[in-house]
TrEMBL record:
Keyword Phosphoprotein annotated: no
Top-level taxonomy: Eukaryota, Metazoa, Ecdysozoa, Arthropoda, Hexapoda
Alphabetical UniProt keywords: WD repeat
Matching InterPro entries: WD40/YVTN_repeat-like_dom_sf, WD40_repeat_dom_sf, WD40_rpt, WDR74/Nsa1
SUPFAM superfamilies recorded: WD40 repeat-like
Gene Ontology CC annotations of this record: nucleolus; preribosome, large subunit precursor
Protein's UniProt name: WD repeat-containing protein 74
Source organism: Aphis gossypii
Domain of life: Eukaryota
GO biological process: ribosomal large subunit biogenesis
Keyword Magnesium in record: no
WD repeats: 131-153
Length: 314
């Protein structure tokens, strides 16, 4: 990568900071001053990152520390996610519309896909020309980017023992290397789906009591059945879908605010979990022991965490 830091943090006021991992401390670099309402961060290439802000997409040059290109999404609602695929930007809007725009044209739109109302998450399917969506009462769907057609729709959860309808509120989506997909929900459920099978309901599920899941990551080059999940009450859970228990394998503690984003990262030649939370802290936990390795107060409210692509899969 052209940039020397290990991660980028995006704050609610639009400020960006680069983070370098040093022994027992973080080193910060100011990249962008507070200037907009930041929604999401994602990778563009080795020199640039994508910032979304309500209805705008900004391509930010990490070397020059300035915005190099701007796009406007003329849709009712705010942007909830953007990713770059080949020569297009794929943008999800919370009204349920996915807009596909060519990178070289700021005004042209190639395609619009209607995915259902109250969209909260859009995610690229690793190496394939597909993407996944989900939201409030809007279950996991996998779409073909070329045709705009649905290829997989998850079934609603089974009714509970009293035959009451179970909620569906997708907060995050991630893919394993074996093409299985894992989905976290704001009502404290994380589901494993196999789109290649005929089964539309989850093939495995894990649950947490009295909390909701807001962020999710798979572990790069580690396992196709394990995930880490950030909760609305500050805990980070490590789940393994191969076990018979729905309880977490371990819990990473220390946060008192909702864990907005998290990822795995190599630190001192060991796997660690880096996270940001609404108590305005950046933390690193040792993945094996679960112990808190470093934490730092970062003043403003962090919303997005972007790790070097060669360190973790985003």
């Amino acid at each position: 990568m052209a940039w020397t830091y290990d991660a980028i943090i995006g704050f609610s006021n639009g400020m960006l900071k680069g983070v370098e991992l040093q022994k027992n401390k973080f080193k910060y670099t100011n990249l962008l001053d507070a200037s907009l309402t930041l929604n999401t961060l994602s990778n563009y290439d080795e020199n640039k990152t994508i910032i979304s802000s309500k209805k705008r997409i900004l391509i930010f040059d990490l070397n020059k520390k300035k915005v190099s290109k701007r796009y406007l999404i003329r849709e009712t609602g705010n942007i909830i996610g953007v990713f770059k695929k080949n020569n297009v930007l794929v943008t999800g809007v919370d009204n349920g519309t996915v807009v596909v725009k060519p990178i070289k044209e700021t005004k042209t739109i190639l395609k619009k896909v209607t995915t259902g109302s109250q969209l909260s998450c859009i995610r690229q399917v690793l190496t394939l020309d597909k993407f996944a969506t989900g939201g409030n009462e809007n279950p996991l769907k996998i779409w073909d980017l070329e045709t705009g057609q649905i290829e997989f729709t998850a079934k609603s959860p089974k009714p509970d023992m009293l035959q009451l309808k179970q909620p569906c509120y997708v907060s995050d989506i991630q893919f394993f290397n074996n093409n299985k997909v894992v989905v976290s929900h704001r009502h404290g459920v994380v589901d494993l789906h196999d789109p290649l099978s005929s089964q539309r309901r989850p093939v495995a599920s894990c649950k947490a009591e009295k909390t909701g899941f807001v962020s999710l990551r798979t572990m790069p080059d580690y396992s196709d059945y394990e995930v880490i999940v950030g909760t609305s009450k500050g805990s980070i859970f490590h789940y393994d879908f191969r076990g018979k228990s729905t309880l977490p394998v371990k819990t990473f503690r220390g946060s008192t605010g909702s864990v907005k984003s998290l990822s795995c990262i190599s630190y001192l030649n060991q796997m660690h979990v880096m996270s940001i939370s609404l108590d305005c802290h950046l933390r690193i936990h040792n993945f094996i022991s679960g112990d808190l390795t470093i934490q730092d107060y970062i003043v403003a409210k962090p919303l997005a965490l972007l790790i070097k692509p060669d360190e973790a899969t985003i």
